[in-house]
Write a structure and sequence with these properties.
The protein has about 70 residues and is mainly α. The protein has a domain of about 35 residues. The protein has 2 helices and no strands. The radius of gyration is 15 Å and the shape is elongated.
Length: about 70
């Protein structure tokens, strides 16, 4: 059986994610991207696709400079 690469593949196979264990590889590094920024969202999406945990314990939680609200664009 092929290795399950991410949570989406395990859900497709089993119908749930109870058996999924994210993998921490050398590529799983913290980010300084501001919370809520497009850059942070892109990094989180990449982590999910690669089967990594969503959050790194050392990720920045600062949201400085990120606009919040309807119609706001960064």
């Amino acid at each position: 059986m092929a290795r399950i690469r991410n949570v989406f593949e395990i859900i497709e196979l089993y119908g749930h994610d109870e058996n999924f264990e994210p993998q921490c590889t050398m590529d799983f590094v913290p980010t300084t991207a501001p919370a809520g920024s497009k850059q942070k969202i892109t990094i989180l999406a990449d982590r999910i696709q690669r089967g990594m945990p969503l959050w790194h314990p050392e990720d920045s939680t600062e949201a400085t400079g990120v606009l919040v609200g309807a119609g706001a664009e960064d």
